């Protein structure tokens, strides 16, 4: 069976982009793949994290996976640092990743900002660790939001470089799965910026644990233009805010974007926003409440993570040994 690997960083509140761009798609893919879902805490520490908040966030992301519909019996859920092979394979792969490839990574440039010399090595090497995450399980498919596309191309390049170097198909080239109308959810305040955890404005994103009133307020305040809604997706070109809100509606309702456009043709945003807010509350409300319930039992969450790490280790161990052996690292 084909294998999926994907993950979310335990940094701050999970938002609608994480849900629609990633987690929700995992739930849909779960029956057809052997799935490994990771809470990537080693990636989180490439930027400064408060130690207490990092642990809490690791449990919260675990709760989000389960509340959204990932079954911890069927799929493996674990935190990255609990399986040492991620760091070990990360180092090995760094020896096959030319610096020129890493220099092209736009996310590093965004995150490092103008202070490039002060950015830590881990932030720069981040995509190599991400390649290791995937290749450590010989994953064939990786469902992510669009912002991870470049990192996945690098993971494929690194796998190819390793295989060519030893003239053996050690690692499959992982396929990105960037799915649906909400693979790139934009800020509610600015349709040209990605919805992100690091945006200073709370009104820019809907969090998975927001209550009904908060969701309604955020949708109400979302930036729009003054035109009525178009009847086809073509009419959304150069209307980024409208495109974003209709894309969110399409993803949440599981209706094609063209059908959503047809339904709201000629309507004003006020009417559409009321429906969008009701839909978002109906879909996210139960997940947010379940997340809070699950996260309140830290012992139960930790037990799920421990079991997940054991199952992950059972797959990762032999793959790491195979890579070491192919490279010629003696394990006396
Ligand atoms: P992270 O934690 O930034 O985001 C987790 C997932 O959410 C998706 N996402 C979005 N999708 C649509 N619209 C948005 N505005 C939006 N914001 C985030 C991301 O694309 C991602 O799928 N490097 C990864 C984590 C990672 C990983 C991996 C993923 C580490 N190792 C191996 C897959 C495989 C990241 O920082 O995701």
From the structure above, extract its key features.
single chain, 332 residues, mainly alpha, Rossmann fold, Tyrosyl-Transfer RNA Synthetase, 2 domains, two-stranded parallel ribbon, 13 helices, binds tryptophanyl-5'AMP
Provide a descriptive summary of the structure in words.
By secondary structure, this protein is mainly alpha-helical. It folds into 2 domains: 3-182 and 297-327, HUPs (Rossmann fold, 3-Layer(aba) Sandwich), CATH 3.40.50; 202-293, Tyrosyl-Transfer RNA Synthetase (Orthogonal Bundle), CATH 1.10.240.10. It is built from 13 helices and 5 strands. The protein has helices spanning 16-29, 41-44, 51-68, 85-94, 99-103, 106-112, 121-135, 149-166, 212-221, 240-253, 257-264, 269-295, 298-327; strands at residues 3-8, 34-39, 76-79, 141-143, 175-177. A 3-stranded parallel beta sheet has the order 1-2-3. Strands 4-5 form a two-stranded parallel ribbon. Strand 4, helix 8 and strand 5 form a beta-alpha-beta unit. Helix 3 packs across helix 12. The radius of gyration is 21 Å and the shape is globular. Tryptophanyl-5'AMP (TYM) is lined by residues 5-9, 17-18, 21-22, 40, 43, 130, 133-134, 142, 144-145, 147-148, 151, 183-185, 194-195.
Would you spell out the secondary-structure blueprint of this structure?
Elements: E1 3-8, H1 16-29, E2 34-39, H2 41-44, H3 51-68, E3 76-79, H4 85-94, H5 99-103, H6 106-112, H7 121-135, E4 141-143, H8 149-166, E5 175-177, H9 212-221, H10 240-253, H11 257-264, H12 269-295, H13 298-327
Parallel strand pairs: 1-2, 2-3, 4-5
Helix pairs in contact: 3-12, 4-7, 4-13, 7-8, 9-12, 10-11, 10-12
This protein binds tryptophanyl-5'AMP.
Residues 5-9, 17-18, 21-22, 40, 43, 130, 133-134, 142, 144-145, 147-148, 151, 183-185, 194-195 line the site of tryptophanyl-5'AMP.
């Amino acid at each position: 069976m084909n294998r999926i690997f994907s993950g979310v960083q335990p940094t701050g509140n999970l938002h609608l982009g994480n849900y629609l761009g990633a987690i929700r798609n995992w739930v849909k893919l779960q029956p057809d793949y052997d799935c490994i879902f990771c809470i990537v805490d080693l990636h989180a520490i490439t930027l400064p994290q408060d130690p207490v908040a990092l642990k809490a966030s690791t449990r919260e992301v675990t709760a989000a996976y389960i509340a959204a519909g990932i079954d911890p019996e069927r799929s493996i859920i674990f935190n990255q640092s609990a399986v040492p092979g991620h760091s070990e394979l990360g180092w090995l792969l760094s020896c096959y990743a030319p610096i020129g490839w890493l220099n092209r990574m736009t996310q590093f440039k965004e995150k490092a900002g103008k202070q490039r010399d002060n950015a830590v090595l881990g932030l720069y090497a981040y995509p190599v660790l991400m390649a290791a995450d995937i290749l450590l399980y010989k994953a064939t498919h990786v469902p992510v939001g669009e912002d991870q596309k470049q990192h996945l191309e690098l993971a494929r390049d690194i796998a190819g470089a390793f295989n060519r170097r030893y003239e053996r198909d050690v690692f499959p080239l992982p396929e990105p799965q960037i799915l649906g109308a909400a693979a790139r959810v934009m800020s509610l305040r600015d349709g040209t910026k990605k919805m992100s955890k690091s945006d200073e404005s709370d009104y820019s994103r809907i969090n998975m644990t927001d209550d009904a009133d908060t969701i309604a307020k955020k949708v109400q305040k979302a930036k729009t233009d003054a035109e009525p809604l178009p009847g086809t997706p073509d009419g959304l070109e150069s209307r980024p805010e409208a495109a974003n809100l209709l894309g969110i509606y399409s993803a949440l309702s599981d209706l094609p974007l063209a059908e959503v456009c047809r339904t709201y043709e000629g309507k004003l945003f006020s009417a559409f926003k009321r429906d969008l807010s009701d839909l978002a509350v109906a879909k996210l409300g139960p997940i947010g409440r379940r997340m809070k319930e699950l996260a309140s039992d830290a012992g139960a969450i930790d037990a799920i993570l421990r079991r997940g790490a054991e199952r992950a280790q059972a797959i990762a161990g032999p793959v790491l040994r195979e890579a070491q052996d192919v490279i010629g690292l003696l394990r006396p």
